[in-house]
Amino acid sequence: MLLCYIDESGTPEVPGTSTHYVLAGLAIPEYKWKETEQDINRIKQKYRLENKEIHTAWLLRKYIEQSKISGFESFPIDKRIYEVKKYRNTEILKLQKRGGQLYKQTKKNYKETESYIHLTYNERKALINELAKTIASWNYARLFAECIDKVAYDPSRSSTSISEQAFEQVTTRFEYCLLNYSNAMNNKQYGVLIHDNNETVAKKHTELMKVFHESGTLWKNIAHIIETPLFVDSKLTSMIQLADLCAYSIRRYLENKETDLFDMVFERVDINNGRRVGIRHFPGSGCMCKICQSHK
Fold first, then answer.
1. Domain residue limits, the chain
2. End-to-end Cα, the chain, rounded Å
3. pTM of the model
């Protein structure tokens, strides 16, 4: 059985806050679950992030206050935490008096990055690179992704929303992978989709999956994926966090041509007959990106 962990990067809304929306699924055999958890936990412990969520986008931001604290990088961990919290508390008190959107956004930024303030920017980059390198080393893992260019997306020509199209594509590609596994092993192989929990998404994807089981997707009947997706708390599930890393890496490559992380996770994209069929860039016509070229 394959366990496929799913997460997204970017927003499916148009225009939203990104030009691309990426839904990624990172699949592993169920008997490798413990091994992958141990690999991830070893890296987390190295950076003093035991039991903390790895959220790539928040980790790779530059925290301005760190650059404003003289000698920050040379401080021991406890002093780093103390100095950043002192700076942030002062800023929040200043902004609180004025209120407004800046206060709300700053408060959110501080909350989302609180677990990482003991790490310098270079240390946070090293952490994410180490995790990406680990994903690349898992030759038993398979990556699936739908990458939608929202600038080129025409809702009037599609019967589904961006998020629905992405989920249908990832589901279809996972189903094809399971079929190929079954044929290679001469034994039917099954899979489960495991999704980051979001009340709105959970309801929508559960309903979609029921339709897929009854009628198939646009491209394939579903015969190997069990049940509807399982929805879990990403804070407690390390593999969801790595699916987030994969989705982020792909989106940053498409939007900013950043290749360091992308090249590592791209190694794990599902391959059939020499083509990386597990990933698609939509609409992709005439595109020279590595994703589109890998389909030729």
1. 29-139, 169-188+249-296
2. 30
3. 0.94
